[in-house]
Design a protein that fits this description.
Layout lengths: L7 H26 L5 H28 L4 H23 L6 H18 L3
Helix pairs in contact: 1-2, 1-3, 3-4
């Protein structure tokens, strides 16, 4: 079977998803795993995980930029990826209830995507 190279866009999206998993843990993981720890430990935990997040985010944005993506396009895409990653984390890891409003928020973000990308 012939190896099919991964397109830079697909690779960038994969890196964005991984980055957002780390970002969600960096921002909210201390609430689940370190809620009784001193604040300095929660901050250190967040910064260590944020370093991993940046290690995936920076290459992803460079790849998209090299393909001609504008900053606004990258940011709106990042927000969509953030919501796609955050909702499962919220539901399964943090055991928060699902609300239909999350779907409406996603519809609004898709509207943002439409307006940011429509001029191309």
């Amino acid at each position: 079977m012939k190896d099919v190279p991964l397109s830079p866009t697909v690779l960038a999206f994969a890196l964005l998803i991984i980055s957002n998993c780390f970002m969600t843990l960096a921002w909210y993981g201390h609430l689940k795993f370190l809620h009784h720890a001193p604040l300095w430990q929660a901050i250190l935990f967040g910064w260590i995980i944020a370093l991993l997040e940046y290690s995936f985010m920076i290459p992803a944005t460079r790849m998209l930029s090299a393909q001609g993506w504008l900053l606004g396009e990258m940011k709106i895409t990042q927000e969509v990826v953030t919501l796609i990653v955050f909702v499962p984390f919220m539901l399964f890891l943090f055991k928060q209830p699902f609300k239909l409003d999350y779907l409406w928020a996603m519809v609004c973000l898709f509207g943002c995507v439409y307006f940011v990308f429509r001029s191309q």
